[in-house]
Amino acid sequence: MKKKVFIISGSAIVVLVAVFFLFKNYTKSHSPAATSTYQGKGAKLEVVYCKPQKKGRVIFGDENSGALQPYGKYWRMGANEASIFSTDKDLEIGSGTLKAGKYQIYAIPEKDNWQINFNSEWDRWGALEANHSTDVLSISVPAKNDADDKEILMLNFENDLENNSTNLIIHWDRTKVIVPIRVK
To answer: What pTM was computed for the model?
Structure first.
């Protein structure tokens, strides 16, 4: 009898693991994984995320507008797994310091400003909100809501020669956010 229960339990676990991996791969077919990298000033920066599409939906807005991402709510800045930011050098982001390492990067969007957070628990799946007690850096940056329309979420790096820095650009729908980064 114990052997039968053990076999059934083991089989159920194998099936559940297989279903999880199939689901994970299926969701990535709709929001494919992407990587943006920057190398310069002695540093390598990378952001790994999954790219959802607008598909005619309201993306950012008040909760009662039916927005996909309501203002004031946690957003993993992508789809599927948490978006991951990594650096091999210490950085100055806003007025704070981010030590070399790997982090979950997420946002709490508002209409005019976004809170951008870096969290030490980077290996996360799904839309579960981050444990804010493990945030290592949080900054507020302005949001531009009249940018060119982007159907697919884009996270990429751009040089800012005027300020001698690099920016992480978050652009989706008509919203564009710039996170200023300096290598220490």
So the answer is: 0.82
In SS3 terms, 64-132 reads as HHCCCEECCCCECCCCCECCEEEECCCEEECCEEECCEEEEEEEEECCCEEEEEEECCCCCECCCCCCH
DSSP string, 10-69: HHHHHHHHHHHHHHHHHHHHHS-EEEEEEEETTEEEEEEEE--B-TT---EE-GGGT-SE
Q: How far apart are CA 49 and CA 28, in angstroms?
A: 11
Q: Which helix (H) or strand (E) holds 6?
A: helix 2-30
Length of the chain: 184
C-beta neighbour count of 47 within 10 angstroms:
23
Angle at 177 between CA 173 and CA 181, to 5 degrees: 145
Q: Which of 110, 108, 94 is nearest to 144 (CA)?
A: 110
- In contact, 172 and 86? CB cutoff 8 Å: no
Residues facing 39 on adjacent strands: 44
Residue 83 has pLDDT above 70, yes or no: yes
Beta bridge partner(s), residue 178: 169
pLDDT tens-digit map of 90-128 = 999 998 999 999 999 999 999 999 999 999 999 877 778
